[in-house]
Specification:
By secondary structure, the chain is α/β, with parallel strands linked by helices. It is built from 13 helices and 10 strands. It has one domain: Alpha-Beta Barrel (TIM Barrel), CATH 3.20.20. The structure holds NADP nicotinamide-adenine-dinucleotide phosphate (NAP). NADP nicotinamide-adenine-dinucleotide phosphate binds next to helix 12.
């Protein structure tokens, strides 16, 4: 059964949705009135938490501070638009994310134009202060100076004085960069520190780094079709008090994408019990209901996907028994059906 304390009727959900939108908008307006630049940037985290103060949004606390984040954000590894139309579509996604109750945006220098495009879009829209901004850094060959130069470049491209979360990308240079990130955190230029992976071959190294270092966040791949992280990484994050971002919650953009397995298949009736109205919401609610997960960051370049996925911010989340039912459907229904 869904978690009872988070259950409410669809009419209430709609009312709550409206209240949330108003509250978030008011928070945005208040912040817009604050002095520009650094002051607005420093308010970003508080503003991300504003979504929680509005009733009805599913949020999770960052263990190291208690600050709450909406459980669905945005991944931007496909934010290098080739045409004005593609850029306009991404602008609409970045604009609507906080309007629909989301806050987290994940990017990286490795994602081609992503940081530059995001910096431009947030400046154009004027919503930097409503975003919980996460980027990444690497120290190629353990070269600290290269890592520091990359950090400076991220601030320039993202056009901000403060980045909410800075993560060591794919564990490249963890021992070299974490002390640097600790200093930058101390200086107030970044608010949280983390490490990422999206490959099971790195899990042993990831687990070792999680045990060795004090981390605010980890980021790992996890979906209903890819549950390896639940074996050791997610339990260790919970035990160590590390917030968790989930990358590739739909199995990634390419061959692993889960939507090809559900195309043309009806949602089960019991999806209504968690108010999942689409496969996107069903699959995201599975991911974010893991007790260790803080926020999933699906890649989205069109507003139809954003509107669909941010529906998972509302309504009940599955409990353990319901999650097992979802897994059984995936393993014995969807995937078994595909194999026939
Ligand atoms: N090692 C790392 O640190 C690492 C590795 C991989 C990814 N990441 C991060 O995680 C983010 C998410 O991963 P990902 O983007 O590779 O994969 P993903 O989130 O699993 O899948 C994204 C794909 O699903 C599509 N999609 C999204 N919502 C949908 C919906 N409701 N219905 C149908 N299709 C939908 C997107 O289409 P549209 O684009 O057309 O909307 C896109 O093609 C990345 O963007 C990146 O920020 C980090």
């Amino acid at each position: 059964m869904p978690m009872p304390d988070q259950r409410y009727s669809r009419r209430e959900a709609i009312a709550v949705g409206v209240a949330t939108a108003i509250a978030v908008t008011q928070a945005g307006a208040a912040l817009a009135a604050a002095s520009a630049g650094e002051a607005a940037d420093s308010a970003a985290g508080k503003n991300a938490g504003a979504a929680d103060k509005a009733v009805g949004i599913n949020t999770r606390a960052i263990p190291s501070t208690g600050e709450r984040l909406p459980v669905v954000g945005l991944g931007t590894n496909n934010y290098s638009p080739a045409t004005p139309e593609e850029r306009a579509a991404r602008l609409a996604v970045v604009e609507q994310l906080p309007q629909l109750g989301g806050a987290v945006i994940d990017t990286a220098p490795a994602y081609r134009q992503s940081e530059t495009v995001l910096g431009e879009l947030m400046a154009e829209i004027g919503n930097r202060e409503r975003i919980f901004l996460a980027s990444k850094v690497t120290a190629a060959d353990g070269d600290r100076a290269k890592g520091v130069a990359m950090l400076e470049e991220s601030f320039r491209r993202l056009r901000t004085g403060r980045i909410d979360l800075m993560q060591v990308h794919n564990l490249m240079g963890v021992d070299v960069m974490l002390p640097v990130l600790a200093q930058w955190k101390q200086a107030g230029r970044i608010r949280y520190v983390g490490i990422t992976t999206s490959n099971a071959s790195q899990y042993p190294e990831m687990l070792a780094a999680m045990r060795k270092h004090t981390l605010d966040f980890i980021q790992v791949d996890y979906s209903i079709a890819n549950r390896g992280a639940a074996e050791a990484i997610l339990p260790l994050a919970k035990e160590r008090g590390q917030a968790v971002l989930i990358n590739m919650p739909f199995g990634g953009r390419r061959d692993g994408n889960v939507f090809r397995h559900v195309a043309g298949k009806a949602l089960p009736d019991w999806a209504q019990e968690i108010e999942a109205a689409s496969w996107g919401q069903f699959l995201l609610k599975y991911v974010v209901s893991h007790p260790a997960v803080t926020c999933a960051i699906p890649g989205m370049t069109r507003t139809s996907h954003l509107e669909d996925n941010l529906g998972a911010l509302r309504g009940p989340l599955p409990d353990a028994a319901f999650r097992r039912r979802m897994e059984a459907l995936w393993d014995d229904g969807i995937m078994a059906g595909d194999a026939e």
